Model the fold of this input.
Amino acid sequence: MSNKRDWEALQERWVQGDALSQDEETARKTVKDPGSQRELAFFDALRAEAPKLSEFETAQVVKRVLLAASGSRLRLVDAKAPQLSAPPRRSLFPRIALGLGLVLAGAALGTAGFTLSARSRQTPKLAASKVAPSSATRATGSVARTELVFASGDVRADGHPVSAGKQLLARGQRVSTGLGQACLTIDPAIDVCLAAATEVELESLDDAALRLRVLRGTAVAELAPRHANQTFSLLAGDAIATARGTAFAIDFAPADHVSRITVIEGKVEVTARGQSTLIPTHASLDFGESLGAHSLVGRSEEARLWSLLEPRKLWAAAALGVLAVEAGQSPARASVDDLGPFELPLSVFVEPRRHHVVLHGGAQESPFDPEVASGAVYTLRAPDPRTSAGHGASEDDSAALLLARARERLRQKDPRGALGLYERLRARHPASPEATTVLVTLGKLELEVGTPARALAAFDSYLRHDGPLAPEALMGRIRALRALGRQTAERDAIHAYLARYPHGFDAPALSKRLATLSDP
Done:
């Protein structure tokens, strides 16, 4: 090392969590200055001699040291190592405090007892062989609100089936997925989504040190930047991946004792068995017996992980309701607002508005548009193919009667009421002729109530069947594209109409409209 100032700069970077090159790390550890050597020995002794604290106790130690660092004198007392009892120089207090937090929060700590004391003119003496949380501390401690916000397919909490919006999750609970997915939200602004065949344990919900242990499978997390004294960690085996504002994932195969930590945004510190490294964006690290070097991640792998977080779009608003889709007698899946399809049963927090839901069962698709109210639960049931054509349904719910009731609502100038009845008809009788015929009317009503995107979906769905109302459906599609401002697509739709129906009722008006549209 060329001079003390260069070493000070490297040490500051190490304490702040920056990744050092191999040459920089060698230079940092081989410094010849006696004062610098004592500081390095201080951290080495602490790593070797510190007791194995729980996550709560570790957080309390770090908090108290950081609080005392502004004007305290730190003293490490150990009967086996009296030569380390001299305090570091006063100018090093902030860095010693931060480094102490880094060692305590991330290292694999030993079991020998030690006493950390901090004295200051403004603060009383803080000394303990282990910082035990008092009853008052537990009573006033901040516990992060944690809730299941998305459950698709087989999702369980402590072995029991669970759905979104039912209850808060508690420390120590295990959430697992079979065939399906799940997402948890932890206040503030932390989303953790689980792939199929995954199990996690809520190891700590202390707001200062949130920890989720991945017992098997894949968990991906995205979190907004947290305060300097707050951490969030995913754990797997002996590895701890800690971040304060990033998106990252852990894949864990317990049978092979191998963890893969992948960072898709930001930086993540990984600690295991006394080793520590920083993983940058677009990189991953495989951990088995020891921490190796990280490697770059391909876009396809990142896309797989981002896709697990996609359902977050459904609960982005402050006001929320719950959309639940129950499973029918046969396997089925559901798409919500073009996201998915997801395995049934499905329960998810959504914004309070109309949502476009498509039920997929074999070759049959059943679209409908439930309107979810704030604070309410809207429940749908996947149709049973054995009764989807109307057989076995009650007379009050027959396709013919629902169609008649919807038309009566139209005569009463109640388009939203008619929409609801048409949706019920399609949900309960998706294979009936009426379910296809009403798609054109549904599209027209969607245009009337100001939802052209849903109108376009209804017209496109009808045109896939190519029934006798195709001219009306094509014309409705053109109107929907115009309302959406998609002029290029509108021009193409007009050409398609004129090519198929050159003498159609709307052909003259469409020819004039085509002349007003600019060329692409």
